[in-house]
Design a protein that fits this description.
Layout: E1 8-17, E2 29-37, E3 41-45, H1 52-60, E4 67-72, E5 75-76, E6 87-90, H2 102-112, H3 117-130, H4 146-158, E7 164-168, H5 176-193, E8 197-201, H6 204-210, E9 213-218, E10 221-226, H7 228-233, H8 238-243, E11 248-254, E12 259-262, E13 265-268, E14 275-281, E15 286-290, E16 296-305, E17 310-316, E18 319-325, E19 337-342, E20 347-351
Parallel strand pairs: 3-8, 3-9, 6-7, 7-8
Antiparallel strand pairs: 1-2, 1-4, 4-5, 9-10, 11-12, 11-14, 12-13, 14-20, 15-19, 16-17, 16-19, 17-18
Helix pairs in contact: 2-3, 2-4, 3-4
Length: 352
């Protein structure tokens, strides 16, 4: 007996977007189809200009699609405005009112919706409790840190009890340490409250850390959809391999027996046809061995100590190779002649 499928929180059916009426204008989003199951977090990831923010704005109803269909919780909202969609959005800039205290900021959406003042205050205080800001009611937003302002923006979105919660680059204004703490808090809150979330970022590590599903976009189209480990370990294209974390791409050739020749290294590949291919190799996939023990001869030309790892650059017949080694006790000297081999993880073969 098969398990029932999770209800769909968001569904795009061949959605396209072109700005303006000129048919010669390139599409910002090209016939995109995907689903976000209810109670899960999907990240829309890609470089600047790939269409991810336009896609998020179409979910919110801030941009009408040129064609296609958008459904939220099974209801067609393609022609509906933002107020009719039961969605809330957390913006990159937070968009807080500086002249209002924290409680008034959070209660604002309820107040303009006609909710009684007593009920609005009660719900706003509960939302602040949810994001760890109990006791901050009377503070002005200008008195808060960046992380606290982010929590206020999140509470203001949550208080409306949306069917879908949207994040547009929510952590980009925070420093690296605070970004890590906030992404953990967002993920914990999403899982605890079983929120349906669409989350836009250009940061691969952020996407890997918070997502149930990642949609990678490139030039307005979907390059690949999958779980974080699928996209990192099993990219289907050279673009996804290079974009999902650091990877070097090497030209190689595959034969009819599933063998891939990467210089002196032979790999097995059971999923493709013979011909020219690309091999994507993560820095952590290389093993540094004494000279002659690995298939690829290498001379160390650069190194950097990171505390928990060494970064090395080797000169090889395949070109310069960047290696990340977790063996901090073994520090190789510049100029040393060594060899490299590939581990079973962190590498993938993609067809051209």
């Amino acid at each position: 007996m098969s398990e029932p499928t999770a209800p769909v929180g968001i569904e795009f059916r061949k959605v396209a977007k072109r700005y303006g009426d000129d048919p010669a204008t390139p599409m910002a989003v090209k016939d995109v189809s995907f689903t976000v199951p209810s109670g899960t977090l999907t990240t829309i990831l890609g470089p600047s200009g790939c269409g991810k923010t336009t896609t998020l704005r179409m979910i919110a109803g801030l941009e009408p699609p040129t064609s296609g269909q958008i459904l939220i919780q099974g209801r067609d909202v393609t022609a509906s405005g933002p107020a009719e969609r039961n969605v809330s959005m957390v913006f990159q800039s937070y968009a807080l009112f500086p002249h209002m205290n924290v409680l008034a900021n959070v209660a604002y959406g309820l107040s303009v919706s006609g909710v009684a003042r007593v009920d609005a205050r009660r719900r706003a205080q509960a939302a602040l409790d949810n994001v760890g800001l109990t006791g901050f009611d009377e503070r002005l937003t200008s008195e808060l840190s960046g992380g606290q302002q982010q929590r206020v923006a999140l509470a203001r979105a949550l208080v409306l009890e949306p069917a879908v919660l949207l994040f547009d680059e929510p952590l980009s204004n925070l420093d690296a340490r605070l970004r890590r703490a906030m992404r953990e808090e967002i993920r914990t809150l999403q899982q605890r409250l079983k929120l349906t979330v669409a989350y836009v970022t250009h940061d691969q590590s952020e996407a890997l850390a918070v997502s149930d599903q990642i949609i990678v976009m490139d030039h307005g189209a979907i390059a690949q959809i999958g779980a974080p480990d699928d996209l990192y370990e099993r990219p289907q294209t050279a673009f996804v391999a290079g974009f999902m974390g650091e990877a070097m791409l090497f030209d190689a050739s595959a034969d009819a027996h599933g063998q891939v020749r990467l210089g002196p290294i032979t790999l097995s590949w059971s999923h493709g046809r013979p011909g020219r291919v690309k091999v994507a190799v993560r820095p952590e996939a290389w093993q540094v061995l004494p000279a002659g023990q690995g298939a690829l001869g290498a001379q160390l030309t650069k190194r950097a100590y990171l505390g928990n790892a060494w970064e090395y650059t080797f000169e090889t017949e395949l070109g310069d190779i960047f290696v990340l080694s977790a063996d901090v006790e073994q520090a190789h000297e510049l100029g040393a002649r060594l060899s490299l081999s590939l581990a079973g993880h962190g590498l993938s073969v993609v067809a051209l």
